[in-house]
Specification:
Structural class: alpha/beta
Helix content: 40-55%
Oligomer: single chain
Number of strands: 12
Order of helices and strands: EHEHEHEHEHEEEEHEHHEE
Number of helices: 8
Largest sheet: 5 strands, parallel
């Protein structure tokens, strides 16, 4: 984890605790964006790239659990860490069911929090390193997302960043549904009408690239998303 500064989204409505945590994390070489409620937190997440989200559970306008669901819609792999004064077993279970990487109850030791954050980031970085090297065989095509290369019978096509990310998501969901909303939020940032039309154009491009193998098809599941059908 040496050599780069990790970016943290901290959502905490307690002004004093929020500033204490922000200052403490910045002293330990983290880049921290502090927001006071869930809606502002979501806007920050949509605006910038983060390595981990620290979310207070009880916040005005949008609680931490709802914010976590919105974050997961955009990036299913984003590390989530809940901070809460709620010690009820049901609340802790609810946090983990939402995919929390950890859950800590107030009051807590800042040094323990820091160690937990480091452990989550290290694990996530190792998983990302493995995922970066995954390549896909799609019928007679070979797809290397890291290099943005789609190869067929010795002919190599270099994909644009959006084409690459969209085909990667389809390949990860091969023969299963890729929800339209999930792809739009992750690649385009929001699921607006105009972004939806843009994605349809990229789907058409991918269909053109893959047309030389009749066993491969990108099926439109009306109103839900797309399915990459491939051997």
């Amino acid at each position: 984890m040496e050599g780069r500064k990790y970016k943290v989204l901290l959502c905490e409505d307690d002004t004093n605790l929020g500033m204490v945590l922000k200052n403490y994390l910045e002293l330990n070489d983290y880049d921290v964006i502090l927001e006071r409620d869930g809606r502002l937190g979501l806007a920050a997440f949509q605006r910038e790239k983060f390595d981990i989200c620290l979310l207070d559970v009880m916040m005005p306008n949008m609680d931490g659990f709802t914010l976590a669901e919105e974050v997961r819609d955009v990036d299913p792999d984003m590390p989530l860490f809940f901070l809460s004064a709620k010690t009820m077993k049901e609340d802790i279970i609810a946090g983990y069911k939402l995919g929390a990487d950890d859950y800590i109850t107030k009051p807590f030791d800042s040094e323990v929090l820091l160690l937990k954050i480091k452990a989550i980031l290290k694990r996530n970085e190792e998983e990302n390193r493995i995922n970066e090297n995954i390549e896909f065989d799609l019928g007679s095509f070979h797809f290397n997302p890291k290099l943005r290369e789609l190869s067929h019978n010795g002919i190599m096509q270099t994909l644009s960043p959006k084409e690459n990310e969209l085909l990667k998501m389809l390949a990860e969901h091969k023969n299963d549904l890729l929800p339209r909303e999930q792809a739009l939020k992750r690649i385009w940032g929001s699921d607006t009408y105009f972004n939806g039309r843009s994605m349809d154009v990229y789907i058409a491009k991918l269909r053109k690239y893959l047309k030389d193998d009749t066993n491969i098809e990108i099926v439109n599941i009306h109103g839900n998303g797309f399915r990459l059908v491939a051997p």
